[in-house]
Amino acid sequence: MSVFTGWRAALRIARRDALRAKGRSALVVAMIALPVLGVTAADITYRSSDLSAAEQLTARIGAADAMFSDAGMGPIQQMPDGDMYSNEAAGDSEMIGEEVPPIDMRAVFPKGARAISEQSVPASVRTAYGLAGTEIVELKTSDRMARGRIELVEGAFPRGTGEMVATKPFLKSAGLHVGSDITVTASGKKYTITGAIELPADLKAKQLYADPGAVIAPWKAMSDRDKKVPAPHPGPSQWLVEGAGEAGIVWNDVMAANKAGAVVVSRQVFENPPQDSEIPLLRTNPQYGSGYSESAETSAALITVVAMAILEIVLLAGPAFAVGARRSRRQLGLLGTCGGDRGQVRAVVLGGGLVLGGVGAVAGVAAGLLLTVAFRPTIENWAGHRFGSLSMRPTELLIIAVLGLVTGLLAALAPAIVAGRQSVLESLTGRRGVRRSSRVLPITGACVLAVGVAVAVYGGTSGSSTLVSGGSVVAELGLLACIPVIVGLLGRLGRRLPLSPRMALRDAARNRGRTAPAVAAVMAAVAGSVAIATYMSSSVAESDYDHIPMLTEGTVVLSAWDDESAEQLPVARAAVEQNMAVTGGRADISRVWAGSDCNVYYDDDGGGCGTIELVKPSGKGHTCPLNTKGAKELAARLSAEEHRSMMRSPACMDEYISTGSFSADSNNIVVGDASLLATYVKLDDPAAAAALKAGTPVLLNEAYAENGEVTLKSVHTYHDKDKKNRKLHPGPARKSTDRLKVYVAEAEYAATPGIRMILPQRTAERLGLHTQQAGTVYAVSHTPTDAEDQRVSAAIDQAGGGVWVQSDQESRDRDSIILLILTLFAGVVTVGAAAITTGLAKADAEADLTTLSAVGAPPRVRRALSGFQCLVVALTGVLLGTAAGLVPAVALRLVDLRQAMEQMRLQPMESAYTPIVLPWATIGLLAVAVPLLAGVLAAALTRSRLTLARRAG
C-alpha cells in the first residue's frame, strides 16, 4: 500500500468517525473555528481600519485635486505630501519674525482652476436645551469636491444662506433633528438644519456646516452696527481646488504656490511624487527625508499572542480527540488485526484532526468575514472613523486557515501517539493498562518555569519587551508541564471531604490526561486576561497620578469677569441650582488684588491691577530639591518611590503641576469663608473653619509657611483714569510687606486645584487689598451633561452673559469597559473549558457512573459529582492562570519603570511613578464567581437519573 493510499483510507475512516460522533465533532470544530474566526475578524478589521495613504488623502481633501492653505510665513519650501514645510528665508535673520500679509489665494491657483473656500469660526448657538458652543464651518458641502470628506446621511445639503447641515453627534448632543431651526446667538440669525452629515475621518465631530457667506458675513455686519456684539474670529481659510485639465495640480504648480507662501496638498503629486533632487526643501534640510522604522516589539507581541492562541486550542481540543480515540479503540484494534501497523493507526487519529481542523478553519474564516461585514458600522463607530474599504488579503487569510488546520493536527498528535502504542489485545478488550507518571516532565517543567520567570524579569529590568514576551511564554510552558503533577496532588486533598467532592478530586487525579489539558486551557485564557488587566489597571493608576485636575472632583465653578458680569451671578446661581445635580454644598468666592478697581483678567493699560505675591521661604522643606542646581545628581540617587514622595511634597507641588486658578492671580489666593473648606477643599476641620471665622487665613500649602506665618508682598499701582485713588496715592507705586499668622492645613491639601490660601474678607480689607465677587463653587453628584450645560448657558446668556461655568470633564472610568470585556472573555473560556472537561469526564466514565448507581448511590450524587468536577477544573485553572498572568504584567511594568527612571534622571521634574496595581475586581470574578457559576451550571444541566444498560460481554 502506498503512502497516498494509506492516508486516503485513514481520512475516509476519520470522516466516517466524525459523522458518527456528530456531537463530539461539532465540539472540536467549534473550538478550532472560534479562534480562527476571531483572528480573521481582527485581521480584516485591522487592515480595513488602517487607512491607506490614498484613503487618508481623500479624507483630507475630498474629491478635489488639491488643497491650498496660507502658511502665514511668506515664500516657503515644502515636502510633496504638504505635512512638512519651512520658510524659504529661514537662514535670513532679518526676515524671521516679520509680519506677513495674507495671500490673495485666487491669484495663486493655476490658470483655469476651480476652487471653493473653507473657513471655520467658533460660535455659540441656541439648541433644544439652551446654549452650546460649537464650530461652524463655511464650505460648499454640496460641491462634488467635498465628497469623501463630507457625506450626507439624511436630508439635503444647504441651498442658501439660511440653511445648515450638522453632524450626527452635534444633533444628538443638542437635542435637534433634521428640520429643526438653530440660531447663532451673536448675529441673531436663524438657520434651518436641512441635513445630517458625517465626516468619515471623524465620526465623533460636533460641527455645523453652512455655505460660504452664510454665517461670518452677517455676524461681522451685526458687529459693525452694534459694538456690543463681539466680532467673529474665524480661523485661516483653505481652498479645495480642481485643476483645469486631466493632469490636476502638478509639482510645478505646487512650487509656484510655495513662492507665494501657500502650502499645497496635491493628489497628483502624491500619486507621482517628484525625485528627491527636484525637492528644494530636501536640498536645504536633508533631515526631512529620514524615514521611520517600526520597532520589532509589535511583531514579537503579535507572535506571542498567536502562539498562545494556538496552544490554547490544542489544549482544549486535545482531550476531545483523546476521548474519541478511546471510544474508537475497538475499531482501531480491528485495524491492527487486519494488518495495520502503528503508523496507520496514528494516521487514522491524525486524519480526524486533519478533517475536523480543515472544517473548523474554513468555517472560522468564512464566519469571521461575515461577522466583520455585519458588524462593520458598529466597529467603525467604535473606532471613530469609516473604513476606506473592506480590506482582505488572501495570503493572510490563507495563513490563518492553515494555522487552524495545523492546530487540529497538533491537537490530535498526542492522542495519536497514545493510540499507536496500545496493543491490539488492549484495544479489543477495552483495557487501558496502567502507566506510571513521568518524573522527568514535572522536573523539566519546574526548571523551564524558573528560567522563563528569570528571563521575563531580566527583560523587565533591562528594558527589553521582546525578552519579556519570550520569557513569559517559556514560563507558561514550564507551568503547563507541571500541571499533571499539580492535578495529581488534588486527589490527596479530598480525604476528609464528602463523597461527591472527594470523588471529583480523585477522578481528576486519576484521569490526568483529560483533566490537565483542560486546566491548562483555562490557565492560558485566564493568564492572558489577568496579564492585560493588570497592565491596564497599572497604567490607569499611573494616568490618574499624572492627571492634573482643573477643579476638585465633584464640583463646578461659576466665574465672573468683572463688576458688570458679577451682577449676573444671582441669575447664574439660580440656573445652576435648577438644572445641575447640586448636592447642597455652595461657597461664594471673591478675587483679591492690589491697585485700581480693574479687570484682573485683561488690563488694557498694563500694571494697573498691581501685584500680590505669596513669598516662599528658602531652605529645607520650602525649596524643591528637584529644581535646584544639583537636581540631576540627586535624581540619579533616588528610587522611584523616593522620587514620587519628593514630587508630591508641598515644596515641589507648585513646580511639578499647575493646578489651575480661579483668577489671573498666579498665587492662587482666594477670598472665602468656611463653606469653601467643605464644598471645594473637602477639608473637614473645625479648627480651620474657626480660624477663617476669626479672620486667620488658611494656608493649604505648608511650604509657604515659616513659624506659622506667611509673607505677603503687595505692589499697589493705580490707573491714571482712577482719579479717586490716584489723588489719594499720588506718585510711584506703593509697596508693602505683611507677615500674616495662618492656619496651616495638612500636606495632602497642597494639591487642591486653584487655591493655595483662603483669605477672609475682613483680613483683605485690613491689608488694603481690593476684592470683588468672582463666583460660586458648587458640589455636584455627577459631571454636568451636555443638556445641563446648555440649559445653564442659555439662562446666563439671557441675563446678559459674562459668567461661565467650569467643570472637570475628565472621565475616570475610561477603561472599565475594556476590563469588563477581558473578564467576560476569560470567564466564557473558563466555563467552556470546564464544561468540555465535565462532558468528556461523563462520556469517559460512563461505566463508573453506572456502577455508582448500581450500588445504591442517590440520584443527586451524579448531579453533585458533575458540578464538583467542573468546579475543580475551573478553580484550579483560574488560580494557576492568575499566577501565570502576573509574570508578564509585572515584567512589562518593570520595562516602563526603567524608561521612566531614565527620563527622570535627564529631567528631574518628570514623574517616574510606575505602579503595579492588581485588578482585584477582575481576579475576584474569575477566582470566585466564574468557578462557582461553572459548577452550578454543570450540576443543573446533568441528569440525576441514569438508565442502566446491560453489561457487555
TrEMBL record:
Residues 305-423 form the ABC3 transporter permease C-terminal domain. It is found in: Cell membrane. Its main location: membrane. The chain crosses the membrane at residues 300-324, 345-377, 397-419, 440-461, 473-494, 515-536, 817-836, 870-892, 912-941. The keyword Oxidoreductase does not apply. InterPro entries: ABC3_permease_C, Membrane_comp_ABC_pdt. Keywords: Cell membrane, Membrane, Transmembrane, Transmembrane helix. It is a multi-pass membrane protein. The keyword Transmembrane applies. PANTHER family: BLL1001 PROTEIN, MEMBRANE COMPONENT OF PREDICTED ABC SUPERFAMILY METABOLITE UPTAKE TRANSPORTER. This is FtsX-like permease family protein.
